[in-house]
From TrEMBL:
SUPFAM superfamilies: FMN-binding split barrel. The lineage of its organism: Bacteria, Bacillati, Actinomycetota, Actinomycetes, Mycobacteriales. It comes from the Bacteria. It comes from Mycolicibacterium vanbaalenii (strain DSM 7251 / JCM 13017 / BCRC 16820 / KCTC 9966 / NRRL B-24157 / PYR-1). This is Deazaflavin-dependent nitroreductase. Pfam families: F420H2_quin_red (PF04075). Transmembrane segments: none annotated. GO terms for cellular component: plasma membrane. Belongs to the F420H(2)-dependent quinone reductase family. It catalyses: oxidized coenzyme F420-(gamma-L-Glu)(n) + a quinol + H(+) = reduced coenzyme F420-(gamma-L-Glu)(n) + a quinone. NCBIfam families: hi_GC_TIGR00026. GO terms for molecular function: coenzyme F420 binding; oxidoreductase activity.
Amino acid sequence: MAGMADQMADERDFNQRNIDEFRANGGKVGGQFEGFPLLLLTSTGAKSGQPRVNPVAYFDIDDRIYIVGSSAGRDRDPAWAFNIRAHPEASVEIGTAPAKPVTARELPREERDRVYAVVAERAPGFADYESRTDRVIPVFELVTAT
C-alpha cells in the first residue's frame, strides 16, 4: 500500500503547486495545463467534511461552465467528483475573479454525451481518456446562483 500513499502524496504536491501557480499568475498555469482554461474548485470532502481545492480544466459551452471527471482515463472518478456528488455546493475561482459559490449538477447521460462530444472536439485528449476506460466519464455543470 506504500505505493498508493506515495502516489496520493505526489498528487497532493502536484495539485498544491498548480494551485499556488494559478493564484500567483491570475489563473494561468503552465506544464500539462499550459493554455488550458483552468479553475480552482473548492469542494467539501465526502468523508472528511474538510474543504478540498483542486485545479480542474473547464469548458465554457453556450455560456455554461462544465467540468469533466476524466481522471486522465483512469478507471475511477477523481476524488472531487465524489465530493461534489456528496456535497454539490462548492465554489470556483476563475482567472483573477474572487471565489464564487456554485452548485454542481451531474449531467444525465443524454445531455452528458452531447456535451462530452463538444469537449472531445475542443480538447482531443479527452477523447483519448474516454477510450482508456470502461466507465462513463462524468460531466458536471457548475451553476452559479443568480
